[in-house]
Amino acid sequence: QVQLEESGGGSVESGGSLRLSCAASGLPFSRYCMGWFRQAPGKEREWVASIGTGGGSVYAESVKGRFTISRDNAKNTLYLQMDSLKPEDTAMYYCAANRPLCSRKDYDHWGQGTQVFVSS
After folding, report:
1. How far apart are CA 62 and CA 27, in angstroms?
2. Which one, 3, 13, 44, 109, has the greatest CB density within 10 A?
3. Distance from C-alpha of 72 to C-alpha of 79, rounded to nearest angstrom
4. What is the pLDDT of residues 88-111, one digit of tens each?
């Protein structure tokens, strides 16, 4: 059974940083494209970033230069380093896994999410 468990969310002031983690189990982690998504209250889910099996990454324009996605295949863990946080980054953040494609939308497996709140 595939499990993705996010952690690291919390409350932070504008300009601050948080590091999200996603622990994966039940799947060959190194063979999966991994992504981060977020959903703010009353809004649709939004793609944030993806990282492929080779380590190549892509970002949404809204987070480019502020967020960094990374993975540790030895630990089956995905990360999202979030710097220079803004109030508009407030959302529930989800990690997701997919194979073989690394898209901005369709993922096979999803975590339960971790909440991020950024105060102004």
Report:
1. 30
2. 109
3. 8
4. 999 999 999 999 889 898 899 999
Dist CA 97 CA 66 (whole Å) = 22
Mapped onto helix, strand or coil, the DSSP state of residue 103 is coil
Residue 31 is which amino acid?
A: R
User: What is the β-pairing status of strands 18-25 and 3-7?
Assistant: antiparallel
R_g over Cα of the chain: 13
pLDDT over 90 (residue 30): yes
Whole-angstrom distance, CA of residue 12 vs CA of residue 3:
27
Rounded distance between C-alpha atoms, residue 82 and residue 102, angstroms: 21
Using DSSP's 3-state secondary structure scheme, residue 29 falls into: helix
